[in-house]
Write a structure and sequence with these properties.
30% strand, D-Maltodextrin-Binding Protein, domain 2, 8 helices, globular, 2 domains
C-alpha cells in the first residue's frame, strides 16, 4: 500500500507544480476531478492489482470493481483534498483503505509534499513514517482543538452544520478546517488535533483514516455514536476522554 502511494505521488507532485495546465472538469458544484486524479488512481489500481490481483476496488473516480475475492477490497481516493490541490493549497493526500469482510483492517494516508506516510494495520498500531502514533491525552473540551469540514454549495445541510459549529466553538480552544478528511483523521491519530467531525462523506474519504485513529488508541463512531460510519457518511473521531462529550454535544446541537 505504501509503495503504491509513493509511486502515484510522483505524478501528483509534478502536476501540483503545473496545476494551471491540468484538465479539470466538475462532477457537481464545488466537486472537481482533474487529470491528476485520473492518472493517480490508475497507478494505484495497477500497483495494488500486481500485489493482490484477487482483491476488488471501490474507487472515487472508477467506482466499484469486483474481484475474485469477494470478501476483500481496496477503498481508494487518489487525491483527498482535490479542491486544495487545484488551488495550490498544499494540504491533500492519497488515501488507501483495505476492507475485509466488512471490516476496515489497514490504511495508508500519504501527504506527498511533506513526505508524511501515515499507516496502520489492525492490531499492529499506527505510524507516521516509522514513529508510533498515539492520539492526544487531553481530557477537557476547553483545551481541545477540533477539526471539521464545511459543507459547500450543493452539499450538506448548512443550517445543521452552523448549529454544530456554534456548539463546538463555544466550548473548545479552536476549530480548524483543513479541507481533507483523510488528513484530518490522520492528524487526530497523530495527536495534532484532539477530535474531528463531519457529515456527508464518502467511504474513500475516511476508510484509511478510521484505521489510523483506532490503531492510535482513539475512537471513531457515526454521528449518533453507532458503527454505521461508511453507510451514513458521518463520523466523530477523538480520544477516549473526548469522544463521548463531543458526540453528545453535536447530537444536542442538531436536536
Amino acid at each position: 500500500m505504501m509503495g503504491a502511494a509513493r509511486k502515484a505521488a510522483r505524478s501528483l507532485v509534478r502536476d501540483y507544480g503545473e496545476v494551471e495546465h491540468l484538465q479539470v472538469s466538475m462532477k457537481g458544484p464545488g466537486d472537481f476531478v482533474s487529470s491528476a486524479d485520473i492518472k493517480a488512481e490508475k497507478t494505484l489500481r495497477q500497483e495494488l492489482s500486481k500485489a493482490r490481483p484477487e482483491f476488488g476496488f471501490l474507487l472515487e473516480e472508477g467506482g466499484e470493481i469486483a474481484g475474485a475475492d469477494k470478501s476483500t477490497r481496496w477503498i481508494i481516493d487518489p487525491i483527498d483534498g482535490t479542491t486544495n490541490f487545484l488551488h495550490g493549497i498544499p494540504n491533500f493526500a492519497i488515501s488507501i483503505g483495505l476492507e475485509r469482510d466488512g471490516e476496515l483492517v489497514a490504511g495508508v494516508v500519504y501527504q506527498p509534499l511533506g513526505d508524511e506516510m501515515f499507516h496502520g494495520e489492525k492490531g499492529a498500531g499506527a505510524y507516521l513514517n516509522e514513529r508510533r502514533l498515539r492520539v492526544s491525552a487531553r481530557r477537557k473540551m476547553d483545551d481541545a482543538v477540533i477539526t471539521t469540514g464545511i459543507p459547500h454549495k450543493g452539499r450538506g445541510d448548512h443550517g445543521r452544520f452552523l448549529k454544530e459549529l456554534a456548539a463546538v466553538m463555544d466550548v473548545t480552544a479552536g476549530v480548524r478546517r483543513f479541507g481533507s478528511a483523510a488528513l484530518d483523521l490522520a492528524y487526530v491519530a497523530a495527536g495534532r488535533c484532539d477530535g474531528y467531525w463531519e457529515a456527508d462523506l464518502k467511504p474513500w474519504d475516511i476508510a484509511a483514516g478510521i484505521v489510523l485513529v483506532r490503531e492510535a488508541g482513539g475512537y471513531v463512531t457515526d454521528l449518533d455514536g453507532g458503527s454505521n460510519i461508511l453507510e451514513t457518511g458521518g463520523l466523530v473521531a477523538a480520544n477516549d476522554h473526548l469522544q463521548k462529550p463531543l458526540t453528545k454535544l453535536l447530537k444536542a446541537a442538531r436536536s
